[in-house]
Amino acid sequence: MSSLSARTRGAASRAADNSWLERLTRAGFVGYGILHLLFAYVIMKVALGGPAADRDQSGAMQQIADEPFGAALIGAIVVGLVAMAVWQVLEIFRERRLTERAASAGRAAFYLYLAFSGVKVLRGKKSSSADTQQDTAAGLLASDAGRVAVMTAGLILAGIGVWLAIVGITRRFEKHLHVSRMAAATRRLVARLGTVGFTAKGLAYAIAGILFVVAAWRYDPEKARGLDAALRALADESYGTWLLLVVAVGFTAYGLFAVTEARYRKV
């Protein structure tokens, strides 16, 4: 069994070392960063009184689709996201620790989810991921087992949000970067971008998870709209505009951080 595991890790390592996969993965980080920058732009527009579009990744992609050459850009982002997902799947077989394997599996699933959202936008579908989440939750909340499922999903999402914030505050993200290759000024800038970006993203996901739990508790599927619901909740606060602007700045920082990963991430 151990020899089989060793052979599997060896095969995964050889596949992951493919130069084309590395190039596509690094390009994927650029697209991932652009997606977060556009998401921040969507949040900022809403904060400043713009139309209440979907405040999630699908809303950001729709913003791209409405621009010249938008379809080509979304197509490139989708290819990069798929490459990132393949890279993370290979990491599952390369890692020895169970926690690292679980993290790679989660990242791979998320990248594929975003890629699928991009494909839907390319096909001209206007339905948002927030609407899909709400409709799914509405069906699940009709049964006790479904309520438990929605509540469990919310707790997991909130836990992910807390973990992302911890990663940002403690700068754990640096272990995945070639920090030694950075100039001192670049290292400080990347550290600040990562700290602000991960913390803001973690806060948004934690709020989204809590709202999933509230949706299950109160039989209210409108609360189960993911990031869209979380940002709507912030907007309803007395200082909603400023809270949304702070979150927009945080996602801008994360987007810029993701772009730097294209060069410095250990792939």
TrEMBL record:
Record domain DUF1206: where: 27-91, 104-171, 196-265
Record bears the keyword Nuclease: no
Keywords: Membrane, Transmembrane, Transmembrane helix
Transmembrane domains' residue ranges: 29-48, 68-90, 102-122, 148-169, 189-219, 239-259
Pfam families for the chain: DUF1206
Keyword 4Fe-4S applies: no
InterPro entries registered for this protein in UniProt: DUF1206
Protein name in the entry: DUF1206 domain-containing protein
Organism for this UniProt entry: Micromonospora maritima
